């Protein structure tokens, strides 16, 4: 039916009027990103190596001193999540700009580098409005629930060997519990807003949660069976020779899909579909309450790719160049490997966001219940069988 | 429009009445649809229009004939000169003005350029409604090139006020034909990208195939026209049925699809873009580079008393106008038959029973433009 | 039934002018003749009364027809044809909105473009563009009815082919 012959160079993309990628100074952009990543890396080193070393030097590593150390680490992690949000929002906007042949933020800071700081300041200065029809207490509480739930996932994520707040032996179960809580915040926020669009968004979030959580839990179980432990540190250790992505390829694919659903990310962003539900559950939020939803979203946009790396891509593993394992230098290098691997996955998620339209909500549910759960169960049995004959 | 006209049913707690629009991002302007929702399923739908009403028809009665042309531009603001043509043709018929062949071809070129522009806007906004942001930016860049070509000749981008009785207002810019040929080269390459991005996307398939099926009989009876009608399998196109301007001189096909669903409407618009490129290619060759751009028209336009209905195939369907003259220099009555106005009437038919997310896809496949619907 | 009407040929359309009482009967006849595509219903203020112009196309052979009927200002009631062609629903509402023509039997005759509480029907010639009454506007006298002559031999009219047939082949 195509009446026009397809040109021979079908991958040639003509550049458009006035768009010159050099004008956005890509080297400066990379410098800005590197600066953010450097700050991120410094905070990670400070949190997991600097603070314990400091407390050990002061002799405060027992009793209340230990509690104080953990508190300081949590404060630093909060700073870390702010850096993550600032960086990821900037990268999202710049990257979407590149894909869409425009520039993105250009004016504040080098190559638009501190635009997001100003945006955050704007949100701080905005009125935190509560609609008359809202249930005030729940309305106020919901963003905090969402943020705290997302933030609490940091506790078990290992940035390098031993660099983790709580390397518990129930890390996976903790993750399931905490990540489910973040959907509660969305539900509460949507229902308490007194807005029908927010209500629909909240209902969709609830329906979405019950459909993706089961395959997600089954994939967690698969990983645990394969590694023989529920601790994230042990799971990473078990991948020393072979990354899980090869033996558990099926579970890996299901995990990425379920992660997209948990992130409420395109193509599964039903609870906040702008073109359908305006903004879904957060339509009535403004100011800092909105900023907390936003912060939670971007913290999760970092944490879920990080978990993909932990479960399937060997976590912090990488060549150490003869550095002594357990030393500060080795830890720093390992956390850099971890950061880079995570960055690749964040980029893949952003790429998906820039490219794909949105599915319909019932299609995800149908897919989750009819395809993902059986496949995840099959993957679990397969992993158990492989482990029996292999190890 | 103060009444909702959709009262909640007493004792029914499973139905929620929501007000989609007029400030809703997916209503392409200012449509308001009052929806009854049962979970995600739409049980009732009542569209309300008129939020952009200016009463063009009354204003046009108080303006002279040449002044009316500028007002017709403001109807379907994404397809520019297409709105001027039915009025111009009707008055030419009443006065018996001869249009030179070259002027006809130039008119047709502008007409098809604006069809491409309008379909590009449709593609971007439809994909935006489906949740993809990037196609919107791509298509608007391409539309920018078309508007640049038009601007060079007509001096304005969206509301060019370019056609006039007997031809076009001024001769084309010397670069016009070269610019158009360059743009067509560019557009052919881009169409490959767009096919990958829209028609071949599995997510688009999942969202549109089998959604909002409009049967052939229902489409005709509802007065639906344009791509929506052709997607239901009716090969009715005013360009072929009642040819005007240079359309008898060029070769093109009318793409139709028997399916009648949202994907068919997407597909038909895509094929129409290919046909527009084909028509423009022929016209770039056929149109004499020099010659008269305007026929002899009287200095004062005073059609004899009488009436005339003329229609053209706008990007959205049959755009008609009924001009009634009483022999003075102002039209006695100008009645526009809006294609999008007629097409929007099937909203309740298609919405009821669909999922809420589907309603967005269906609405964007109808491609309403509220400048024309509300007039 | 036999319809009292005046038939003429205007450009490429057959134009029927009927009495409002016979409007519905003629429309039923046209629907039976296969005119299936409703193009538009237009309301006109003729100075002596209101006119409803219904325009139809037959998709089969692309024959076009226009039906006109005039009603007085005092009682502008025309039977609705939404059951024959659902596509005229909004056009009838528009004619009601703009000129106050009431379509008897319309399922949902509300204002469509203006607010429900709008005070006047703006397209009436007695108002200027600002919506104020024009000073000195008087309705013209009703024109003398032309003597009714029996219509020519019935449908389908052979000359309706004219311009339409080429389009028919092409499509």
Write the layout of secondary structure elements.
The complex is a heterotrimer of chains A (391), B (375) and C (171).
Chain A: H1 26-58, H2 64-99, H3 115-125, H4 136-152, H5 171-192, H6 196-227, H7 232-238, H8 249-263, H9 274-277, H10 287-312, H11 328-355, H12 361-390
Helix pairs in contact in A: 1-2, 1-11, 2-3, 2-10, 3-10, 4-5, 4-10, 5-6, 6-7, 6-8, 6-12, 8-10, 8-12, 10-11
Chain B: E1 16-20, E2 32-38, E3 41-48, H1 56-61, H2 65-73, H3 84-95, H4 101-130, H5 134-154, E4 163-164, E5 167-168, H6 176-199, H7 202-208, H8 216-221, H9 227-231, H10 238-241, H11 262-286, E6 306-313, E7 318-325, E8 333-337, H12 339-344, H13 347-351, H14 356-366, H15 370-374
Antiparallel strand pairs in B: 1-2, 2-3, 4-5, 6-7, 7-8
Helix pairs in contact in B: 2-3, 4-5, 4-11, 4-14, 5-6, 6-11, 11-14
Chain C: E1 5-10, E2 13-18, H1 20-32, E3 37-45, E4 50-58, E5 63-71, E6 77-79, H2 89-99, E7 102-104, H3 164-170
Parallel strand pairs in C: 2-5, 6-7
Antiparallel strand pairs in C: 1-2, 3-4, 4-5
Provide a descriptive summary of the structure in words.
The complex is a heterotrimer of chains A (391), B (375) and C (171). With 391 residues, chain A is an all-alpha fold. In chain A, 67% of the residues lie in helices and 0% in strands. Chain A is globular. Chain A starts with 25 loop residues before the first helix and ends with a helix. Chain B has one domain (63-338): Cytochrome-c3 Hydrogenase, chain B (Orthogonal Bundle), CATH 1.10.645. Chain B is built from 15 helices and eight strands. Chain B has helices spanning 56-61, 65-73, 84-95, 101-130, 134-154, 176-199, 202-208, 216-221, 227-231, 238-241, 262-286, 339-344, 347-351, 356-366, 370-374, and strands at residues 16-20, 32-38, 41-48, 163-164, 167-168, 306-313, 318-325, 333-337. In chain B, a hairpin with a 4-residue loop joins β6 (306-313) and β7 (318-325). The model of chain B has no long low-confidence stretch (mean pLDDT 87). Chain C has 171 residues and is α/β, with parallel strands linked by helices. Chain C has a single domain, classed as NADH:ubiquinone oxidoreductase Nqo5 subunit (Beta Polymerase, domain 2, 2-Layer Sandwich). A five-stranded mixed beta sheet of chain C has the order 1-2-5-4-3. In chain C, a hairpin with a 4-residue loop joins β4 and β5. The N and C termini of chain C lie far apart (35 Å). Chains A and B meet through α6, α9 and α12 of A and β1, α4, α5, α6 and α7 of B. Chain A: It is an enzyme of class 7 (translocase). Chain A: NDH-1 is composed of 15 different subunits. Subunits NuoA, H, J, K, L, M, N constitute the membrane sector of the complex. Chain A: Pfam families: NADHdh (PF00146). Chain A: It is a multi-pass membrane protein. Chain A: It catalyses: a quinone + NADH + 5 H(+)(in) = a quinol + NAD(+) + 4 H(+)(out).
């Amino acid at each position: 039916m195509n009446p026009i012959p397809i040109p021979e160079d079908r991958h040639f993309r003509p550049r458009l009027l006035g768009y010159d990628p050099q004008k956005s100074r890509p080297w400066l952009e990379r410098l800005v990103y590197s600066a953010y990543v450097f700050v991120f890396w410094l905070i990670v080193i400070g949190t997991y190596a600097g603070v314990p070393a400091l407390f050990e030097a002061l002799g405060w590593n027992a009793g209340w001193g230990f509690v104080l150390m953990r508190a300081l680490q949590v404060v630093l992690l909060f700073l870390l999540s702010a850096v993550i949000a600032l960086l990821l929002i900037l990268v999202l906007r710049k990257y979407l700009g590149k894909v869409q042949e425009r520039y993105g933020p250009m004016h504040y800071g080098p190559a638009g580098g501190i635009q997001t700081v100003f945006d955050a300041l704007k949100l701080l200065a905005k009125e935190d409005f509560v609609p008359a029809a809202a249930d005030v207490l729940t309305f106020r509480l919901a963003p905090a629930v969402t943020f705290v739930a997302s933030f609490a996932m940091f506790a078990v994520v290992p940035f390098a060997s031993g660099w983790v707040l709580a390397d518990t032996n129930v890390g996976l179960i903790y993750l399931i519990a905490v990540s489910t809580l973040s959907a509660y915040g969305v539900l509460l926020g949507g229902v308490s807003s007194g807005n029908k669009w927010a209500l629909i968004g909240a209902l969709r979030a609830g329906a979405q949660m019950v459909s993706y959580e089961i395959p997600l839990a089954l994939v967690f179980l698969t990983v645990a069976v394969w590694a023989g432990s529920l601790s994230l540190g042990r799971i990473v250790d078990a991948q020393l020779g072979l990354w899980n992505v090869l033996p558990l390829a099926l579970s890996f694919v299901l995990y990425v899909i379920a992660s997209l659903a948990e992130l409420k990310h395109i193509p599964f962003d039903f609870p906040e579909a702008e073109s359908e539900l305006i903004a879904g559950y957060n339509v009535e939020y403004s100011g800092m309450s909105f900023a907390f939803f936003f912060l939670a979203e971007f913290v999760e946009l970092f944490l879920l790719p990080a978990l993909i790396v932990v479960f399937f891509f060997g976590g912090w593993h990488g060549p150490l160049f003869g550095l002594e394992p357990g030393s500060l230098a080795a830890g720093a290098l390992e956390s850099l490997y971890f950061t880079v691997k995570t960055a690749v996955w964040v980029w893949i998620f952003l790429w998906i966001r820039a490219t794909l339209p949105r599915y319909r909500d019932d299609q995800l549910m149908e897919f989750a219940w009819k395809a993902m759960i059986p496949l995840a169960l099959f993957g679990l049995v397969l992993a158990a069988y492989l482990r029996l004959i292999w190890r | 429009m103060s009444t909702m006209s959709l009262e909640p049913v007493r004792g029914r707690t499973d139905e929620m009445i929501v007000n989609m629009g007029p400030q809703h991002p997916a209503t392409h302007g200012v449509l308001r649809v009052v929806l009854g929702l049962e979970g995600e399923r739409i049980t009732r739908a009542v569209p309300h229009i008129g939020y952009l009403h200016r009463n063009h028809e009354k204003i046009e009665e108080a303006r002279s004939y040449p002044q009316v042309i500028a007002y017709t531009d403001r109807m379907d603001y994404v397809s520019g000169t297409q709105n001027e043509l039915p009025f111009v043709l009707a008055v030419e018929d009443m006065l018996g003005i001869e249009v030179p062949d070259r002027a006809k071809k130039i008119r047709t070129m502008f007409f098809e350029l604006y069809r491409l522009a309008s379909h590009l806007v449709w593609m971007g906004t439809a994909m935006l409604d489906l949740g993809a942001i990037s196609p919107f930016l791509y298509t608007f860049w391409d539309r920018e090139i078309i508007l640049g070509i038009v601007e060079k000749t007509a001096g304005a981008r969206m509301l060019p006020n370019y056609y006039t009785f007997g031809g076009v207002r001024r001769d084309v810019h010397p670069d016009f034909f070269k610019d158009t040929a360059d743009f067509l080269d560019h557009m052919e390459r881009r169409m490959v990208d767009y096919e990958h991005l829209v028609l071949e996307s599995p997510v688009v398939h999942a969202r549109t195939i089998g959604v909002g099926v409009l049967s052939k009989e229902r489409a005709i009876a509802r007065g639906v026209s344009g791509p929506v009608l052709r997607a239901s399998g009716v090969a009715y196109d005013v360009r072929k049925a009642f040819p005007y301007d240079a359309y008898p001189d060029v070769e093109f096909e009318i793409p139709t699809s028997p399916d009648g669903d949202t994907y068919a409407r997407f597909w038909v618009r895509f094929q129409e873009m290919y046909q527009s490129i084909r028509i423009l290619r022929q016209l770039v060759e056929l149109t004499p580079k020099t010659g008269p751009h305007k026929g002899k028209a009287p200095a004062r336009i005073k059609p004899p008393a009488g009436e005339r209905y003329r229609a053209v195939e706008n990007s959205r369907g049959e755009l008609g106008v009924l001009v009634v003259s009483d022999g003075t220099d102002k039209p006695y009555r100008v009645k526009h038959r809006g294609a999008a106005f007629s097409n929007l009437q099937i909203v309740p038919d298609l919405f009821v029973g669909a999922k809420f997310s589907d309603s967005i896809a269906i609405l964007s496949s109808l491609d309403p433009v509220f400048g024309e619907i509300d007039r | 039934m036999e319809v009292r009407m005046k038939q003429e040929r205007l450009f490429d359309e057959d134009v029927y002018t009927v009495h409002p009482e016979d409007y519905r009967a003629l429309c039923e006849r046209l629907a039976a003749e296969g005119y299936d595509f409703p193009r538009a219903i237009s309301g006109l203020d003729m100075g002596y009364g209101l006119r409803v112009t219904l325009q139809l196309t037959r998709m089969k052979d692309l024959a076009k027809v226009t039906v006109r009927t005039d009603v007085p200002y005092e009682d502008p009631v025309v039977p609705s044809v939404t059951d024959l062609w659902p596509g005229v629903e909004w056009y009838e509402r528009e004619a009601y909105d703009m000129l106050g023509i009431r379509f008897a039997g319309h399922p949902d005759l509300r204002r469509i473009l203006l607010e429900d509480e709008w005070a006047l029907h703006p397209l009436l010639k007695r108002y200027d563009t600002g919506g104020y009454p024009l000073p000195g506007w008087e309705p013209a006298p009703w024109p003398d009815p032309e003597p009714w002559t029996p219509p020519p031999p019935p449908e389908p009219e052979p000359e309706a082919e004219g311009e339409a047939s080429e389009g028919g082949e092409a499509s």
